[in-house]
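Exercise 7 asks you to align residues with tokens for two separate proteins.
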Amino acid sequence: MMRAHLLALAAIGLLAGSLGAVAQTYPVEVESCFDRVRFDGPPKRALVNDTNMVQTILDLGLADRIVGVSGIRGVERHLVGDPKVIAGLNQFIDRYPSLEAVLGLDPDFMFAGWSYGFRASTGLTPASLATMGVKTYVLRESCIRIGKREPIGMETLYADIAALGALFGIRERAEAVIAAQKARVAAVADRLQGVPSRPRVMYCDDCYSPSPPLSVGREGMTALIIRLGGGESLFDDIANSYVRVNWEEVAKRDPQWIIVNDHRVPIEQTIRHLLSDPQLSHVEAIRERRFIPLTYAEQTPSTRSIDGLEKIARALHPDRFR
């Protein structure tokens, strides 16, 4: 599967160089949450928030369109791409910049999501940017924060990539990325046909202290890749994306595997806390030390989500990948 992955990336790279130049007519309209946004031409001064969306823009070969990024300070090491390009990204001082700071870069476009940069409480929203002539695209998964969207599926992620392809004028490149991802998802599904059991899996963020941890309900990307990877997401009864839970409920539900990331806190620190908490000592995942490390971009919606899916599937069902 790894060889197929590398070949797919190589093919996408060739397509990025050739198909990206194919002329595209404007205007185009894309669906952004519950609105439609019209683009009369491709963005030339784009802002991008958070590691997963920056990674997607880099993977689509659009680094030259970026005038500013936010949410990646201190975690640049997780980005995959040309080190010179990553080092050259113009970062905001604040992790979550204000509307004024954003407008100070004179952007014509912003790619972010609800709870991924857009927040009514800060005034940085698609509506406020629209009044200043700045177009936006909202991460599809995050739309659950402001209304009822379709149940999450891989099509939710593909919709993001297709929309970015249309509005940036690189439809063929985006379609090549989607096709490669669909092939990899299908390969995992084929390997997991008829698995006899689906282990209970918890996504555990902010799990390095006694404070309530952040996990995922059934509408988050992490829950989706857990299910597609042959597991049962621990909090699938919660109809939301990322949610605070309590340790007592975690202990009661007894996860058999725990997903951790080292986005801002080292995985070793998180695991050390989990192993030392007496109320969790009976939890199977902790007792057996079953942890699945993923990067932030692998567990949130991005062009790297399929990497996360494959890692989960291999951890839960290693016999299917020998």
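Second protein for Exercise 7:
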Amino acid sequence: MLSARVVAVGFTLLTAAKAMTSVAPNTSSESRGLRAAASRDAYSGSPLQRLQRLSAVPGCVPSRVNDLLLLRPDTDNQCTSEPKEKSNNKHVMFFHGDIQNFQEEMALQPEGAQWLSWSLEQVAFTLGRRFPDRYVWVVRASCMYLHKFSCYRNFVDSNMFGAPEHSPYSPDFGAFRHLRALLSNGMERANLPNPLEPQGGADSIPSGFSLTLVGFSKGCVVLNQMVYELGGARADPQMSPFVKCISAMYWLDGGHPGGSETWVTDKQVLKELAASGVSIHAHVTPYEVCDPMRAWVGREHGHFIKTLEEFGACPSKKLHFEDEPPCIENHFRVIQEF
């Protein structure tokens, strides 16, 4: 049975879900202005009031869509002399792991109900405390096979269980292209000021724009694919200005059902990452890197760190809960501890 605390949280979020759905597009500029003003007023209070769900947001291909959760920064508690609308164009994008889903959907699944405290909504709130001055975006995987296996096919070729097949950069498709268009369309749908353009060179990047990427568990396959694309993306004059806005990448206890490439180990690919100037963070737990049945995960993680250091990067790294038995609860808890 669910505890009274979890049930209470579930009912609260279910009630709020209606208010989080996105508004249908409107072609009137006056209507857009009114909606933007109303949106700013509506999302300046408690965390629930600042949370908005955006359904079926398209990426670079209109048929490839992802649901997004947006948690706006708590501007009421920020100290700044700049106008609130223009002072902040900092964003965090989070890619979740298996089992994680919207609160009401997890509550309907026996395997999901016991992990409601790690629903996408709850993770958004956790990240909002970790990054209080930024717009926090939670990207829901486009497919949840059997309601538990997250599959990020819009970003990287994957089988039904979400095991990836990584590939190099293409100017026509791929993780960077989908990410940029998805964020641009999400910002437009949410009526954010100074939105990112879906494509273009340096003049298409809004002033002060920056992006932090966070992958947890299966969600790390998206970050890995971007690393494989990084060299080509940095050489593409249309994509390079966007890539330069990525300030940090966080790998949180990466894992997927494939038998290799849980962590990037290709030296040439990691050389590009080390040279990119991106701040690199790797947080792991014994659940992933100390599992004797999947010993390659720990070896790959070590190779990832060592190779980056050899190329002059200074990745931050931490093994959490190293004195505790490996367990899935601590696997999830790394989201709070990183």
